[in-house]
Prior knowledge:
Elements: H1 2-18, H2 43-52, E1 61-62, H3 64-71, E2 75-78, E3 82-86, H4 90-98, E4 103-106, E5 109-113, H5 119-134
Antiparallel strand pairs: 1-2, 2-3, 3-5, 4-5
Helix pairs in contact: 2-5
Amino acid sequence: MRRRCGLAVLLPVVVLVGCGHHDSHGTAVNAARVPVMLNDVSVATVLGAITKAKLPALNPRDTTSTRCPEAGCVVATDTDTVSILKFPSTGRAEIYAAGVPDMLQVEDIVVVFAPTLTREQKTAYGQVVTKAMLTPAQP
């Protein structure tokens, strides 16, 4: 009786493992390896919105190669007042944001504030970033 019960449990597992997603060429697709971008809002779009709102963002520099390997982001730009990082998923952004004390996270974007910014300035940045994330991209 025990042996039959074990086979009854094992058989559905084997069947489910065999059911994988295949592309049109019959090869298996590994969804865990292919990041799906949540939105098309780029770091440049967020930086542009900050600049357009006349909030300080002086000396922008691409820090993707130095920051992203450790942070897990896909693109990063630092300025004198904020650092803007885009992640491959909201979950990855949340993991990074959990370890950063002075930041704003909106979906897959994390904005890290310089220690010199006031609460009012951080609020202003937050409003601009949130609006940029909700505004559809222009064709």
